Amino acid sequence: MERLRIQTQRFHDSFRSSAEQPTWRGLAIVTLAVILIKLVVVAAGVCAAHHGTLSRRDYEQNSHHHKLISRWQDPQDIRFFDLWVASDAQWYNAIAEQGYPTREQFDTGSPVYNPKLIAEKDTQLKYAFFPLWGLTIRAMQTLFSDVHAAGFIAANILSLAALLILYGFMCHRAGPQTAFWTVVLYVASPFGLFLHVPFTESLFLLLAVLTFVACERGSWWLTGVCVGLGVVTRPNGIAMSVIPAAFVFVEVIRQPGWLRGQFPRALGILVAVVPLALFLWHNAAQTGNAYVFAEVINW
């Protein structure tokens, strides 16, 4: 155990040796780099849409739709915010505007359906998509009434905020150069595409980074809030609970008496159960089954 403690401390100190506080200049450079990458991705998407072809039959049979768009009619006349709404984004937009159905509203459409409109068929599948991103889009609609625009703008604002917080966290842990390349390589990676479009990744990344920051500062109630919100953003959000668990493990190894001094305040992390409890209560009230999401996706 003593050997493990020494190795853990050395690993910790190796990062601290190059750590610095983020500067306004560094934040400005990172912000500019992220915005430039976003513009490149957006430009590529617009170019691909304007030079692509998609028949009406192909479009209508492609996944489910909240609102039909004109992409199959004229690729040259597509609305900008419609470009990014596909697959899961359709479901979250439907949740933002219509909420979740009751059990009586399940499968209200005909067995033969085309186009696949979410309001008319497979409505029970909405429960496979957890509520926080839909609520975020709904909140953004107070500023931008169009649901497609609200989702796109919310995703880009939240991803920019998440990446700037990540930059500050990495500066503090490993220095500005490592922090800069962490952010740039992350946002420019193939997975980074989902930080520019109306999916859950932007919100989830923000909550994950805030969880790391809250753990490092010993703010257990904020850790609990972030983990709890992460759980109701995506079904795999429960994995965020590993972050505080790993932090506690490392600190206990480094400082054997650490947990005794933190225990009373650490109870604040229990607030993490509140968002999930509210979602389960809502599900039970709507459908009679708190775990209806497991039912509809055959878990």
Key attributes of the depicted protein:
0% strand; mainly alpha; 60% helix
Low-confidence parts, pLDDT < 50 over ≥5 residues? 11-18
| Helical residue percent band | 55-70%
Number of E strands: 0
Q: Give me the oligomer status.
A: single chain
User: What radius of gyration results from the CA coordinates?
Assistant: 22 Å
Sheet with the most strands?
none
User: Which term fits the overall shape?
Assistant: flat
Strand content: under 5%
Q: What number of domains?
A: 1
SSE arrangement, N to C: HHHHHHHHHHHHH
Describe this structure in words.
The chain has one domain (2-296). Mean pLDDT is 81; it is low at 11-18. It is mainly α. The longest helix has 28 residues, at 147-174. The chain contains 13 helices and no strands.
Helix and strand arrangement:
Layout: H1 2-16, H2 24-50, H3 56-60, H4 88-98, H5 131-140, H6 147-174, H7 176-188, H8 201-217, H9 220-231, H10 242-254, H11 258-266, H12 273-287, H13 292-296
Helix pairs in contact: 2-6, 2-7, 4-5, 5-6, 6-7, 6-8, 8-9, 9-12
Provide a brief overview of the structure.
By secondary structure, the protein is mainly α.
